[in-house]
Amino acid sequence: MISLIEFFRTRLKATMMACLAMIGLIALWGSFMVDTSHAHTSMEKFPFFWSIFGLLGGALLILLSRFLGSLGIMTREDYYDE
Amino acid sequence: MNNFWLHPALILIVGGLILPLMKGALRKPFLLIVPTLTFITVLSLDNGVHGVVQFLDWQLIFGRVDSLSRIFGYIMSLMCIIGTLFALNVDEDAHHIAAWYYVAGSIGTIFCGDFIVLFLFWELMAFASVFLVWFRRGPQSLATGYRYLLIHTLGGLFLLAGFVLRFHNTGDLTFGPLNVHNPDIATYLILIGFIVNAAVPPFHSWLPDAYAEASVAGAVFMCAFTTKTAIYVLARGFAGMEILIPLGAVMALYGVIYGVIENDGRRIFAWDTVSQVGYMVVGVGIGSELAINGSCAHAFAHILYNGLLFMGTGSVLYMTGTCKLTELGGLYKKMPRTFLFTLIGGLSIAGFPLFSGFVSKSMIIAAGFEHHHLWAGFALLLASGGTFLLAGLKVPYYIWFGNNNCTTERWEKAADPPWNMQAAMAIASVLCAFIGCYTAYLYKMLPFPVDYHPYTAYHLSETLQIIGTSGLIFFLLRRYMEPTATISLDLDWFYRMAGRGFLWVDSKVFQFIDSAVGEIYRYVGLFPLMTISRFWSWFDWNAIDGVVDGTARSVRSLGGAVRKVQAGNMQYNIFFAATVAAAAVLVFVFV
Question: Is there a contact between B455 and B355 (Cβ–Cβ < 8 Å)?
């Protein structure tokens, strides 16, 4: 287990490129080779719909969380200890 | 109905009573035998109504067994075995007893057929589980436990008020589907009672508060039973109640948003629990056969992978003494198996193909789209990507990879946990993968016949694209995902501050009023009172006592005179009496 992790860590760049390539291939496969007749809505039939959804949705969640956190929700750990 | 029927919860209750007598080599086998017997008993239950007891004017139903209660009873008792195995090295009997009574409360609620029995076991759950928080014995445990108890007691009171009002209106105490299309006040009160336990906003804050503060093994139990029992009662009573759809969708996203800014590993998974229970709440709100099947399947899968995630992070806490991401990192060298198990839990919760979440949560999402709740379907898919960010990437990355922020002492202590904890995680991991690969195992247990196939090319491409791009955005925006040594204020702020406000008002305002009234009383009230008292004392002494004493003195002097006359000698008495009588006769004769 540890040696497997070490194997990927020593080849970090190649591992990351492989992951990126896989994400790209899945997006291509999902957009052009999969039968979209089972789509829930018509807008899903646009190419790369779910990839864009995942990217924008993930970015929205991360940035929205940080923004809300910066409004005062995130506070020091001893806040309630006073 | 008079046939003997063994309630599975009774095995745990009696087992808990016997446990303190088990010492030495007998103790550990006994700890495993009791939940195993419970599981076997649940498996052997026949459909129908059992354990009916006449109590005063009511019929109490302890054992309603049908496809809905059976699947929940199955997974609860199975999780009890896994949880007890994980907790096997806990020496305190009371910890095991609390955990078993908690599970007994859950199983009792699941098999009950009326509101009185439901309430009984509902409260047993709350009062047993609070000990799992207190047994952590941390600086915050006591206060957290009381807050937990306070919220659950409040929820219980709503439930009590609801079913008493319902009984008053209808004369019916049976627990079954309620009128969700024209709900009255009683129905809403019962709903509030249930959704407090399901951690539906705004009643959710108790969950991350308690789960993050519970004992290592206690959190594994807590993350499985309360919310999923609530999903069971919601599915039983409130299937099709549409207000649950937006509430559940908000829950699913709310949990993810708070998870992103959280630093404590177990608290992140507590927020993930809020998010995942949101899916089930949406399913109950939709109420169709597919949606209820989805909620049940997701509850089943969730209990296993959530237990696994809490076991993984709990092991880190157990071995290193902390679960804060800012104080950990690089642990893959020290805790590789724990990493693997937690990763399997993370992939399951994120709905990765071949793992349990993929085959369960997708049923709810499909039901959402099928019934034209498009925004709910998209919200749940968005939450799905967010869940992968948290459970699949953030927690594994910052605990097992990333910068090594461990102190030397912590690094030295870090290692995979004892065998029993690893065995429990291994069993849960295998089950997560098994459910994901062999869908018939889970689908055959669901309350309605299943006509759903998760492994379609479209579903696979949709899921893999969302998960893949979520992973990409994690690395692109990693600096915003970086954990910080902060806590996040939530709606519990209001009641925590209200408690403090009450204490302040009590210690400052009421104390001041009390002191002021005391002083005013001393100067204004006490002086006239003393004066009046002195007057009455004088009056009593001189007037009352004068009269009384005067009378007494008169009586005494008369008594003295009589005494002189009445010397006590019979012959004198007769002489005086005869003399007086003779004088009277003489007067009568001669005058």
Answer: no
Site from A61, A76, A78, A80 to mutate, B interface, most B CB atoms within 10 angstroms: A61
Distance CA B239, CA B299 (A): 15
Interval B462-515: pLDDT, tens = 999 999 999 999 999 999 999 999 999 888 888 888 888 888 888 888 888 988
Can you tell me whether residue B198 is helix, strand or coil?
coil
Distances (CA, A) of B182 to A72, B38, B116, B122, B281: 41, 39, 24, 26, 19
Are the Cβ atoms of A34 and B377 closer than 8 angstroms?
no
Q: What is the Cα–Cα distance from B563 to B561, expressed in whole angstroms?
A: 5
Count of structural domains, chain A: 1
d(CA B44, CA B42): 5
B357-394 pLDDT per residue, tens: 999 999 999 999 999 999 999 999 999 999 999 999 99
Q: Which residue reads 């109504």 in tokens?
A: B49
Angle, CA B53 vertex, CA B224 and CA B185 arms, to 5°: 60
Find, among B82, B7, B575, the residue nearest to B303 by Cα. B82
Sign of CA dihedral B251, B256, B262, B266: positive
CA nearest neighbour of B96 among B37, B43, B42, B18: B18
ipTM for the assembly:
0.94
Instruction: Say yes or no for a CB contact (<8 Å) between A79 and B261.
Output: no
For A54, the closest chain B residue by CA position comes to B466
CA distance linking residue B2 with residue B397, whole number of Å: 58
- Look up residue B306 and give its two tokens: 């959530």
Q: DSSP per residue over B463-524, as a string?
A: HHHHHHHHHHHHHHTHHHH---SEEE--THHHHHHHHHHHHHIIIIIIHHHHHHHHHHIIII
DSSP calls for B133-161: HHTT--TTHHHHHHHHHHHHHHHHHHHHH
Residue ranges for chain B with pLDDT beneath 50: 1-2
Q: Return the structure tokens found at B75.
A: 């997974």
Smallest Cα distance from B439 to chain A, Å? 20
Distance CA B102, CA B243 (A): 29
* Nearest residue of A to residue B475, measured between CA atoms: A16
Task: Transcribe chain A into DSSP letters.
Answer: -HHHHHHHHHTHHHHHHHHHHHHHHHHHHHHHTS-GGG-SSGGGGSTTHHHHHHHHHHHHHHHHHHHHIIIIIEEETTGGG-
Contact A50 B473 (CB under 8 A): no
Expressed as residue numbers, the domain containing A51 is 2-81
What burial class does residue B408 get, using C-beta atoms within 10 Å of its C-beta: 0-12 exposed, 13-18 middle, 19+ buried? exposed
- Are the Cβ atoms of B336 and A69 closer than 8 angstroms? no
Torsion of CA B105, B110, B111, B115, to 10 degrees: 80
CB contact under 8 A, B477 and A68: no
Q: Could you tell me the CA-to-CA distances from B75 to A66, B38, B227, B232, B431 in Å, in that order?
A: 37, 11, 13, 12, 11
The minimal CB distance from B458 to the residues A38, A51, A53 is found for A38
**What is the Cα–Cα distance from A78 to B380, expressed in whole angstroms?**
34
Asked if A64 has any chain B CB less than 8 Å from its own CB, the reply is yes
Q: Say if the Cβ atoms of B457 and A34 lie within 8 Å.
A: yes
